Each structure stands twice: as C-alpha cells, then as structure tokens.
Amino acid sequence: MNLIDIHAHLEHEKFKDDLDKVIERARKAGVKIIINSGVNKKTNRESLELSEKYNIIKPSFGIYPIDALAMEMQELESSGFSRDIEKLDVDSELRWIEQNKDKCIAIGEIGLDYNWEEIKNDEPAKTKQKEIFRKILKLAKKIDKPVIVHSRKAEEDAIKILEEEKMKKAIMHCFSGKKLLIKRCVENKWFFSIPPIITRLQHFQLLAELVPIEQLLTETDSPYLSPVAGERNEPGNVAVTIKEIARIKGLDKKDVAGVIWENAGKVFEL
Questions:
Q1: Which tens digit of pLDDT belongs to each residue from 15-25?
Q2: Measured between alpha carbons, how far is 89 from 267 in angstroms, rounded to an integer?
Q3: If phi over 0 gives left and psi between -120 and 50 gives alpha, with beta otherwise, what is residue 106?
Q4: CA 270, CA 250: separation in Å to the nearest integer?
Q5: What is the distance between the alpha carbons of residues 166 and 238, in angstroms, rounded to a whole number?
Q6: Within 10 A of 180 (CB to CB), how many other CB atoms are there?
Q7: What are the structural domains, with CATH classification, of the chain?
Q8: Contact 62, 38 (CB under 8 A)
Q9: What phi and psi values does residue 79 have, to the nearest 5 degrees?
Q10: Cβ–Cβ under 8 Å, residues 238 and 221
Q11: CB under 8 Å to 173, separation ≥6 — which residues?
Q12: Which H or E run contains 207?
C-alpha cells in the first residue's frame, strides 16, 4: 500500500531525539509521503530543512491563525495569554513563501481559530484573523497551491471565506463542524483529512461515513491526535486511519489506501 500523511509537525520538540526512527517506522508502514506543515516563520524554515534531509517529507508553508495575530496580541501575551506565539510580520512571511513557492507542496496550515478564551469574545481579533486568512488564500491562488485549513470553533466562518474566495483545492484539516457544514464542504468538492484519533472520537467516524471516499485524505497531525490516549502520534499511524475508514465504509483497506493515494495525487499534483 502507498500511504500518505498530509499533515504533520515533525519539527516539534517531541521528535528531537528519535526522528530517524520515526521516519523509518513510517516507511515500514507504507508511508511514501509526509507533508510537514509550518505554522510560522521558524517552522516554515524547519519544514523546508526537513524536506532537504528526508526525501519522504514535503513542506507546506503556513501561518497558524494565532501566530497571524502575534503583532496585535502582544498585550494579551504579556498578560498571561495561554499559548506561546512567535512575533510575526505576516506580509514579510507571505513574501518569503511566494519567493519559495517552488519548494512547497501546499499552503498551510492556515485558517481561523476561535478556541482561545482571549479570542472567542474579541470581535476585532476575529476580524483580523479573517483579513489575514483572505490575504493568504489570495496568495495560494496566485501561486496555484492547495490550502490546508484549520478551522477550530470557526468552521462556518472559514467555509464562508473559502467560498467567497472561490477556493477549489482546499483540505479541511481535523474538521469538527456539524453535519450541515460537512455537507457544504462536500458540495464544494473540498477534501477532509482524517487523523488516527478516529479510533477514539465518534465525530471522525461520522465524518468518514458521510464523506465520499473520493474526498478523503489521511493525516496524523503528529505529535497530536494519537489513536492511543497519552501517546505521541507519528506518521506511521496513518495505517490506523486507513483500517478504520475501511471498516466504516465496508471496503478492503488496500482499496481505501489506493483511492486516498489517488486523491492526494489530484489535490497536490504529485
């Protein structure tokens, strides 16, 4: 089977001691491509470096929604904001991404995030996120790259913006929206990437059931979203997702892997 992990964070400190072994386990599991997603200036460059060291890794350059607000949120950060964020000049980073467009396979992760207490009731912060999201989408269209979208607690707003910007190649990463929003994404011909935590979360089982297999992809979001609570996730676990999708769809896992590999080939132009 040819497997693909379309969303991982292998530059994370949890992989600093044994990344070679993690990559080797992924290869043994059948993983042929790992897309490592940057979230800011530092991790975009680290993703590029990883791709130069390991031929299995392809970089995706992104600006995580919270990092996108870094300049505006210095006051929140200094007053105990619950997430460490790197100060980031969005326009400067977008220029770097455009200059290095031939070195990346996608733009992501990008999107909206209303999960944080400091943001959920802050309309100016939400508005700024939306403005930056649109700016990044326009760049993705300009350089003709698919986008990997983060939309935590902001699914409807993210979908609306993707529709208004007429995005054709979008992957909804770890999507937690309701049935009607899932259907809306399906109708827009976008893809959903499903993590190994599908074995523990009914929502992702429902997602795998509702979405046509022709619009499914596999991700791990390593080191997060492990199939086993409390354990570090890693790319080899996409095999777990394939097995679970096959069970839900009533299909052979080799057939599922084949279709998902074809899906990835189409959206990422592999």
A1: 999 999 999 99
A2: 29
A3: beta
A4: 28
A5: 30
A6: 8
A7: 3-268 (3.20.20.140)
A8: yes
A9: -100, 15
A10: no
A11: 7, 108, 109, 111, 148, 149, 150, 151, 193, 219, 221
A12: helix 202-210
